[in-house]
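Query structure, 77 tokens:
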């Protein structure tokens, strides 16, 4: 079954802003609205990966891709 992704192009100036944003994305993934998140902001990916890793029911994966631009993906299984 294919993964359901949420893809956004938001980039925050501070790690604090990214952490607050990642908290809301983590809630959406926990609620099974999405399986993963795709972002150009490494701060969001970093925060999200560590938030999701704290939940025992998830196995967390992350990768950086470079096509036309640099993107960071975090997903769970």
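Result returned for the query:
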């Amino acid at each position: 079954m294919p993964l359901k992704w949420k893809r956004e192009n938001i980039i925050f100036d501070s790690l604090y802003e990214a952490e607050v944003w990642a908290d809301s994305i983590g809630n959406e993934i926990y609620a099974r609205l999405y399986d993963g998140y795709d972002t150009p902001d490494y701060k969001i990916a970093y925060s999200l990966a560590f938030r999701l890793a704290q939940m025992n029911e998830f196995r967390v994966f992350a990768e950086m891709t470079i096509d036309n631009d640099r993107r960071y993906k975090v997903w769970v299984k």
